[in-house]
Amino acid sequence: MRVLVIGGDGYCGWATALYLSNHGYEVGILDSLVRRHWDAQLCTDTLTPIAPIKARLQRWKDLTGKHIDLFIGDLNDYPFLEKSLLQFQPDAVVHFGEQRSAPFSMIDREHAVLTQANNVIGNLNLLYALRDHFPDCHLVKLGTMGEYGTPNIDIEEGYITIEHNGRKDTLPYPKQPGSFYHLSKVHDSHNIHFACKIWGLRATDLNQGVVYGVLTEETGMDELLINRLDYDGVFGTALNRFCIQAAVGHPLTVYGKGSQTRAFLDIRDTVRCVEIAIANPANPGEFRVFNQFTEMFSVGDLANMVKSAGNTMGMNVDVQHLDNPRVEMEDHYFNAKNTNLLELGLQPHLLSDSLLDSLLNFAVKYKTRVDKDQILPKVKWRR
């Protein structure tokens, strides 16, 4: 099967492209490389050293004998997108090619507009290209659990059955996104759902939790294949930030009470979930939603886990609470369903089993690359 990974130079995309290539798929990467440009604009960098994309792909070919096609360009450039798809002839498209940071989207008007224009228009271009040239191609789109927000009822997988005034229907689950980034993903979901309904496209929306970890079997083969580890206040996750803070002796910075709860999964489970979706495609006209996560933790839970693991490594780890720069509920109910991928064969990796190998050891190994000026938050939701 031929699979085009859009955004294949990024964190999830790179691991996915190598995984699929290693498991017998013919893989292409389409990427504008703008993520590297945003790092330069923000004067930050991944903790782990990332080689240029062509050097990465050449090293992969040298090690495995497997070739990955490369298309460098922007989804918002429709002629480029159309030409690339016609050249590669995909059976499935895995779409990671979006600005994926909530803080980035909340910096100012310019970054909010950039996020929505890049994400929504690029996704819409892709839908039209598939309609016109590859109507049977399976679109596997990276959504986010952040589309749902934190409702005071259980979060279902994409749809909810409602009884109202004596009538009953199954409808898309209500969305309560918490940033302009998350809003863009909601717009994507609506556009894809509509395209499946009117054009008969087939799509799987993977509403993914927070991903952690550097290592997969493939990215661990050689340092030139290493994956990103972002820890800054814009692209870094709380868990990544805590691990880097522990490694350099900085208190773990918990926003607010630390009771905010989210869904999480290991990068090794991300790539496996994508493969499961590809191997079990949606039907024509079907917009299918999987909640892609394995565990749920509060921010405080994460801090305590990192503190405990760090102390076993001889670190003296402290926890510090900061005023929350985000506008979010800190005390809330959070119970999300995630049965579909498990029923299709996902065997989860647990954070308790991989925190040291997948994060803390990398934080210690590369701690001389840490820019301490990037650790504290600089973006505030409320002006």
Write the layout of secondary structure elements.
Layout: E1 2-6, H1 11-22, E2 26-31, H2 34-42, H3 53-64, E3 69-72, H4 78-88, E4 92-95, H5 102-105, H6 109-133, E5 138-144, E6 159-164, E7 167-172, H7 180-199, E8 202-208, E9 210-212, H8 238-248, E10 252-255, E11 261-266, H9 267-279, E12 287-292, E13 295-298, H10 299-312, E14 319-322, H11 339-343, H12 351-365
Parallel strand pairs: 1-2, 1-4, 2-3, 4-5, 5-8, 8-12, 9-11, 10-14
Antiparallel strand pairs: 6-7, 11-13
Helix pairs in contact: 1-9, 4-6, 6-7, 8-10, 8-12, 10-12
Q: How would you characterize the overall build of this protein?
A:
The protein has helices spanning 11-22, 34-42, 53-64, 78-88, 102-105, 109-133, 180-199, 238-248, 267-279, 299-312, 339-343, 351-365, and strands at residues 2-6, 26-31, 69-72, 92-95, 138-144, 159-164, 167-172, 202-208, 210-212, 252-255, 261-266, 287-292, 295-298, 319-322. 48% of the residues are buried. 39% of the residues lie in helices and 19% in strands. The chain has a seven-stranded parallel sheet with strand order 3-2-1-4-5-8-12, sandwiched between helices. It has a domain at 2-220 and 265-294 and 334-349: Rossmann fold (3-Layer(aba) Sandwich). It is α/β, with parallel strands linked by helices. The protein starts with a strand and ends in an 18-residue tail after the last helix. Helix 4 (78-88) crosses helix 6. Strand 6 and strand 7 form a beta hairpin.
CATH class of one domain: Alpha Beta
Q: Biggest β-sheet, characterized?
A: 7 strands, parallel
Spatial strand arrangement across the major sheet: 3-2-1-4-5-8-12
Q: How would you sum up the global shape?
A: globular
CATH fold description of one domain: Rossmann fold
Q: What is the total tally of β strands?
A: 14
Report the end-to-end length measured between terminal Cα atoms.
49 Å
Residue share in β-strands:
15-25%
The topology string of helices and strands comes to EHEHHEHEHHEEEHEEHEEHEEHEHH
How large is the radius of gyration?
A: 20 Å
- The CATH homologous superfamily of one domain is termed NAD(P)-binding Rossmann-like Domain
Mean pLDDT across the residues is 97
Unreliable residue runs? none
Query: What's the tally of helices?
Result: 12
Give the fraction of residues assigned to helices.
25-40%
Backbone structural class: alpha/beta
Per CATH, the architecture of one domain is: 3-Layer(aba) Sandwich
